[in-house]
Specification:
Length: about 190
């Protein structure tokens, strides 16, 4: 039964374009990990923060939509994933605050914008690459939130959690896109 489910998931994520298939895989991993983030936050921040922490789940349907969009347009799905990544980071910054290191998630968004597009889509790539930088400027110089109040210790714990999460996500993106861009051995 698990084998059939994994086979069906593989078919749902597959796409003729290897970059779109990689983006579908990234979206699936993000969707799979999204429900765990509020649990980590609960451990760090406690029960009182629960209502606000559930707001970090808002991105889940958007991650799930990427493979559906990819069936119609690979380019649209790749753009959608990149934009949703930036918007999700801004949203989570509004919930948790800039001081939690949540803006570090804009780094994988830059990677999505640069690695997820073909050379012929360079103009689109440049525009999408500017989006995380613009979002960072807004978060840094016109801060939003936080909805959750926390002490310096909890904030520092979230910086560590977010930093490790971003590092893992960047490594995963590297592996995903390396397999999407095969090169000939010499």
């Amino acid at each position: 039964m698990i084998g059939r489910a994994l086979t069906a998931l593989g078919r749902a994520l597959d796409a003729p374009d290897p970059l779109t298939a990689a983006m579908n895989t990234v979206a699936a991993v993000l969707a799979g990990n999204t429900p765990f983030y509020p649990i980590y936050l609960y451990v760090v921040l406690g029960r009182d923060a629960t209502p606000a922490l559930l707001l970090t789940l808002c991105s889940l349907p958007f991650w799930c939509a990427v493979p559906v969009i990819a069936r119609r347009s690979g380019v649209a799905a790749r753009v959608f994933l990149t934009v949703v990544g930036v918007l999700n980071t801004v949203w989570c910054a509004a919930v948790l605050g800039f001081d939690t290191g949540i803006a570090l998630f804009l780094i994988p968004c830059i990677l999505l914008a640069t690695l997820g597009f073909h050379r012929a889509e360079r103009r689109l790539m440049f525009g999408l690459t500017a989006l995380p930088f613009l979002a960072y400027a807004v978060l840094r110089y016109a801060p939003i939130g936080p909805m959750v109040r926390m002490g310096a210790t909890e904030s520092l714990d979230l910086v560590t959690l977010n930093g490790v999460s971003v590092a893992c996500l960047c490594a995963f993106l590297g592996y995903c896109f390396a397999s999407a861009r095969p090169t000939a051995m010499r």
